[in-house]
Batch of 2 targets.
Target 1
Amino acid sequence: MKKRKLKIKNILILLLIVIIIIFTLLVLFNKNNNTLEKIGYNSLEIQELEKLSKEELNTIYKYDYNSNLIYIVSSENYNKDRLDLYMDYTLKNNDIDYLKIFNIINHENFKEENIDKYITHLKKFDNIDGIIKYVNEYENSNVKLNSTTLSLIKEKYFIIDFLDRYLNYYEKHKDLEYKEIITRVNSNLDYQFYTDSNKSDLTKEMYTLVNKYNYLNKDYVPDNLVNVTGMYARDKAELVNVAYDNFVKMADDARKSNLTIKITTGYRSYNFQSTLYNNYVKVDGVKNADTYSARPGYSEHQLGYSADLTNAKNVAFDDFENTDEYKWLKDNAHKYGFIMRYPKAKEYITGYMFESWHYRYVGIEIATYIYENNITYEEYYAYFLR
Ligand SMILES: [Zn+2]
């Protein structure tokens, strides 16, 4: 009898222990559930939120109910390290669409120290890229902020010093995209060819820009000219040594593919250009001659870094586009530091018709950038070298 009583007692104790364990586990499991529920999340939301890490949940517990939280944490752009910012700023600014705040915080150029300034502008504007760039870079300038200036600022090649020119150009060309306004003004198209021109900035050395807005003096002759002869030239030509060395490398590599690239003219003196241009004018008139020949002083050939090219058959310029040499150069010249200086579809920027034969040496780094970004030297120079 006594033995049996003891057995029942043991069973009861065991049962009690089991109940306590189950109860503790239930409490532990439901802890999140309870806290989230207390904050105001519904069971569906809780189900989603419970998939988050403990750390994330602890962050969420610090804040009031956030009706956008589920959208935020289930977005593919959600960054758990910024959860505090999402919570804080979407709750504080419920007059702003949470998505705008979310996107600002996720932006690649987002700087946490500027967040309050971004948010202030978000109340008035939608242009997130523009706001970020403005606050990060131009806040201390005198830019009058409106949707037009923000759209201009957002553009990759925006130059703050040109803002007034962009705005003027925009007033006259409202049909154009902002990107195109930037391209045109950076290339000086709001000015007149030859009329609004300046002396080329020779302090830029091998990067000097010569075009219809920038000219060389009559007596300018580059240093370090070398003769191009033999298999590298049709007759004879001259180039500045660094351009020559890289041209030789390029021609030698092309030869490995059975292609022959030769120079017809490299450096041209002011006087030579003068004779050339005047002869063209006699035949074609000024207007036509200007599309393919530079006025004296305005020819890049006078710099000594440009070369007109042909092949083994000495094809005429107009036919060079159809040669295998051209096809090779198009995708390889930049590897040797040369750019096609007057590309197709950029005639309105360069002021010259498409010249498949005219290459300019600018070094590998710049040539590669220009090739990969499909911009002209005018655009590159304005943004990176001016
Ligand atoms: Zn040329």
Note: The chain has a mean pLDDT of 95.
Target 2
Amino acid sequence: MAERDALVVGGGLAGITAALRLADTGWRVTLLEGRPRLGGAAFSFRRGDLWIDNGQHVFLRCCTAYREFLDRLGATSLVHLQDRLDIPVVRAGGGLAHLTRTPHVPAPAHLAAALARYSALRPADRLRAVRGALALGNLDPTVADLDNCSLGIFLKQHGQTEAVINSLWGIVATATLNVVPDDASLALAAKVFRTGLLDRADAADIGWAAAPLGEVHGTAAAAALERAGVSVSVGERVESIRAGGFVSSRRGESRRALQAEAVVVALPHRDAFRVVPELTETPLARAEGLGTSPIVNVHVLYDRRVTDLPFAAAVNSPVQWVFDRTDSSGLARQRPGAQYLAVTVSAADDVVDVPSRQLRDRFVAELERLFPAAARASVLEAFITREKRATFRQAVGSNSLRPPAETPLDGIFLAGAWTATGWPDTMESAVRSGLAAADAATGRPASSALGFAS
Ligand SMILES: Cc1cc2nc3c(=O)[nH]c(=O)nc-3n(C[C@H](O)[C@H](O)[C@H](O)COP(=O)(O)OP(=O)(O)OC[C@H]3O[C@@H](n4cnc5c(N)ncnc54)[C@H](O)[C@@H]3O)c2cc1C
């Protein structure tokens, strides 16, 4: 039987996944990526002798598609996944609480047990938090109306005080939805809290890259795609895509025209509509209104260790989350004894345009408040990375704007973390979208089986 041709445009996690799935199904696949590397929004760059991630990327045990993706890339050994949830929560002056789960306590009781011990909240607020958890646990994320409500309003309606929101729900919601609770779509928040925290006891065990993201997603993906027989062209920018599978691309001054039975458009939403203008004449055009939301990272290198925590969330602080990147960046080898902390600020609208010098001063001072040992250390270097369009804006009303993989255009399919996967704009959503687009292209029923095997 003649091979069927597919083009995948965009080499982020969605495009890599779609290409692997199509190749597994026996299609001849070419992947075109505009940048000189794979991995899309989750990447690393070189700064001196160190590898710096553009932003800390975290996943949860419940991210089953992303974890299978790592397996398929042979990259599972490059990430660390907690045996059981333990979020250290730091406060000014060195105060430390833990949000942990007890082994062998089934859901949802596991959370009640964790909240009972959660010393970042006063005992009365811990009881309120249990009430909030029960209310969130009763939400069905697939009910469309939830998208028209705000998480913040819902929490307040269910007795959650500012303290509970700031010290508990907001820590999780802002990091996963990249908007503050008052702005967040309740439908997407319900997905986060149900699937990520409440439905299974082990769902929220936290994972993160133990190597630079470029190694986890870029190098490992390139090798997996090669093994699968996918032809990969990086540094080749697609300029337009038309119904019928017509693609024109450009590399420097040279242009080429390609055609395939199926084209998977795995681009950020703003690029997808620009590159496939015919989409703007379809009902899917409403997704142009998804907007964007920024994430800022503040990277601080100290001459000595200032904390033994591998990561922590912070309450009542502009430092939302902080991660120890000493080993993964290569600093441990370059300068033994030194430490590299990366601060993540999600929903960073107020911060993203602040000059670097001001941000460095503000966050270095804040880290001293959270980790008193930092005040005795010397800062070797501090710098900022900004992702102005890190995710789509997961605000009230956004979930219903997301398009499915199928489009009304002949041979054109959509992938990307922003498409209608039911998940927030995450690596898990990107991988799920790639699987869905490949299945739509091959006519395979959208299967519940997420495995890559055909
Ligand atoms: C700072 C930051 C922190 C984050 N933290 C987390 C986290 O902790 N956990 C989590 O799960 N998710 C996180 N995310 C979100 C996650 O990175 C994204 O959801 C996911 O990587 C999106 O993958 P994608 O393949 O859908 O899109 P992208 O990664 O955006 O891939 C699209 C690709 O298309 C390419 N492209 C664009 N235009 C063209 C063109 N014309 N021709 C050819 N190629 C083109 C781009 O170069 C890019 O490689 C974070 C994102 C950022 C930016």
Note: The chain has 13 helices and 20 strands.
